[in-house]
User: What shape does this take?
Amino acid sequence: QLPTGLYKKVLVILHDSVLPYMNEPTLMMDFLTVAYGIGGAISLLALNGLFILIHKHNLEYPDFYKKLYNLLDPSIYHVKYRARFFHLTDLFLSSSHLPAYLVAAFIKRLARLALTAPPEALLMIIPFICNLFRRHPACSVLVHRPGGPADMSEDPYVMEEEEPSESRALESSLWEIQSLQNHYHPDVAKAAAVLNQFLSEMEDDISGLLELSAYELFDKEVKKKAVDVPLEFEQVRGLFGKKNDIFAEHFSLD
Amino acid sequence: SNPFEVKVNRQKFDILGRKTKNDVGLPGVSRSKAIKKRNQTLLKEYKEREKTNVFKDKRFGEYNTKITPEEKMIRRFTLERQQNYGKKNIYNLNEDEELTHYGQSLAEIEKLNDIVDSDSDTEERGTLSAELTAAHFGGGGGLLRKKVSSEQQDEEEEKPKSRKELIEEMIAKSKQEKQERQTQRESALELTEKLDKDWKEIQTLIARKAPKSERKDKEVEKPKPDEYDMIVRELGFEMKAKPSERLKTEEELAKEEQARLQKLEADRLRRMRGIDEQADKRRPSHMSADDLADGFILDKDDRRLLSYKDGKINIENEEEKEEEEGEEEEEEEGEEEDNNNEEESQEESASEDEEDDAADSHSDLESDLESEEEAAGNKEEKKHKAIENESQHVEKLDPKSEAGKSELPYTFAVPESYETFKSLLAGRTIEQQLIILERVQKCNHPSLAVGNKAKLEKLFGFLLEYIGELAALDLPELRTIDKLVLPLYNLCQMFPEAASDSIKFILRDAAHDLEEVIEVKGRATFPGLDTLIYLKIISLLFPTSDFWHPVVTPAFMYMSQLLTKCRITTLQDVIKGLFICCLFLEYVSLSRRFVPELINFLLGILHISLPKKQAQGYTVVHPFTPVGKNLELLFVCDKEDLKSWEKQNVPLSIVTRLKETSRTEINHIRLSCLALCFDLIKKCAALYESLPSFHEIMHPVRILLTQHVPVNEYPEKMQEWYHSALKELENKVKHYTPLICEKKKPVPLKQYTPKIVKVLEFGRKQAGSKKEQERKQLIQRHKRELKGAIREIRKDNQFLARMQLSEIMERDSARKRKVKELLGSLATQEGEWKAMKRKKWKS
Assistant: This one.
């Protein structure tokens, strides 16, 4: 019922400057429910207010996890409110009473979407997934399935399925993380390689990683001191002079 | 202490090596200490609990632990001075306080200003002069006697000298003596300096000659066989050394080169896998043409010398390679400059070799007594020769190759600033610029003078900046840059650290600008062509396949930011983005690393080439939007243009300005971009086919290609591109194997035999990782502290209770006493009164 910009502005401040001062916070229930149903960034933002209602005011929300599951789409790794969203998701998924299929579905979906994520998001989401594995050991079949079929022609997981219980996530494996072990960023590759081994007991602390920005990452890399600098040994023959240079095929120096 | 006060905690079992802190205690002492402390603190507080007056300590910084005591004293002193200032001192002008150091007045110390010299003063330090002792310890009589003995001859008439005069005289004398000593010392110092200087002049001569002369001496001493040996060795050397050089055929050369490349490649692979082997020795730096005189690695020289010492004659492979390579490079150079000069250059290098040989044999003869220093000197000499040769060689080449051109000076100084550097290259043709750069490098080789290294390192920065400037021009001079990359590469090989630093600096600037723009405007635009060229140059100078590389990894990060943060609003943006995609592909072409941004961007490019409609089955991510005004940026619907399109290479100058204004040409460029995009998709597919989730990665692209792209409207060439890309995507088998974790080491069964662990430190748990250990330690410490605190509080309470009790007792006893007194006095009163009464009664 509100324009998008206003919606966003209201929702950003709702949870800490409106709700605590209301006598009857439950009155916001309808507003938040509608906002949550809109989708996209507005849903992400409405989550925070909803969480307070559920947590402090005993709001019963049917199909909450299903909706949360459907909120996950490729843009979550790129939006501005990423840190807030994942902070809340971490809270929601921290309950140990969640069924394994649900958590597995979440893990699988997050990992699938991570295939399009920038490195700063990857550095956050991989420890996030590791933490999920630690909380829900039943999901570890995703990374360790000793007695499974030797070869499958298809990933059993159904990405398009809206119902987490129907997504067959528990039959699948986390090939996405295995792919990310080949990521170009050394830290991401290292983080992804952690899942090759059995996880340690301690949970990783991801609060510091939530706000990570690309520039910080870059800065960190630039400031690293190198002992020696390896050099290219192939003699240059010009700007586009390499063997099989892609540029020479498509660009000209004019 | 008193043995009755000592309490010993006896242990049941003695364990060797364990130290316990609490086996002996002094309960009485510690208790009394604790009580004393409580008396000072807790009791005070308790007594003052109902008092509102507070004692304030206003001493400056008394309780500030941050200030060091000295500083505190200084501050207090200044405060004191400030307080006193202006009060009394109005009339007291001269009252300057005397500053002291170790009890001596500073002013006096300054006056004396004699330096204690190590060798001149030591003898005299201990012994006092006779006069002084006499004066000081002889008393008044001594003084008088002294006077008599010393001044007998000249000042007889002024006999009665006052004591004051005498002392003054003595002071004057001692001062004079001191001065004399000082002048002497100075002259000695001067002399030694002069001697040093002379020695230095001679030294160089002696260093060369001394061993020889010594050697001669030895020869004289030794009998004939040695001489014979020498001749044999010499002959053997000559016989073998030359053939070994000549035997190098083309094949062998090629083989050696191949072996070298293989080694380098193996090195690269190791780095790509990110296996860090710190122990691995440093990678042999590539020898470029200019590196013939690569002299600053002394290790190499050492090795060679050793082999000579043994009397082995074979020349080490490395050196040969170096020379050969030099030759080769020279040849290349020659080819570049003038093909006809090849023979000459070979002759040249041959003669050079001979000279080298001569030098070598020379050193061999001397080798018995050679010191390292000298070896370095020799090498240096050789280098000079080599470089001379080289420059001669260049000089010979140059006049032929560019007879008609304007003359260039043969020596150049390294420009100190960027402006001079630019003026050096201004107005020259590309070839001339190259020659200038080459000569600058040769004239200022690091082995020639000390400061040359820093200068050349600067030159790299200048060259880089110059390239950037050329690229940023309105009409970018890419051809020039294309040539300038060569000297840049050579310089980079010489000074990897400096090169990486300057490139990192540029990258940091660029990233910083980007970040600023994002913060201010909320969105970013693609950088200029210069930055793109820099990124390309990085791939030329450094191995991009490394797991981590000080330059390449930041470059990756930067490019990733460009692809995800920069808005696509114009055709130029598309071209720049595609350029960066190509860069990404090139960077990862060997290592096959996965770049999500690349796929996202290509998907977005395909998306904007479609006519506007609802996207289905795939989602585009930032910076592309499913709806918005910048859609259809690459969409071409003009039939004519579609037909007339020919695949052409996109000229990079378009990036700075779009000169084609006609619609057709723009459409053609669009189509070329699209073709490029198809090709990149094809290459990506080939690159990533081994990834386990290849199909998931490519899923959106495939849907877009198969369902949305209007293939039939495209010209035939484009359809070829399209189909080859699609084929590459489709013909990959789907292949999934369930993941299995790496096997844990099996946990051994519990056994009854004791586990033997190396104990590094007693009383400490060893197991667990560092983090966990730390955690455990913290928990333990917390527990201990908590217990201690509880104990303290309990004791405090006991102490307070005791105090209160004693107070109450005191009060009670006082009251009792008083009551008793009162009762007593009453009793006496009563008694008196009764006695009086009785009296009365009686009377």
Notes: Chain B is about 65% helix and 0% strand. Residues 498-731 of chain B form one domain.
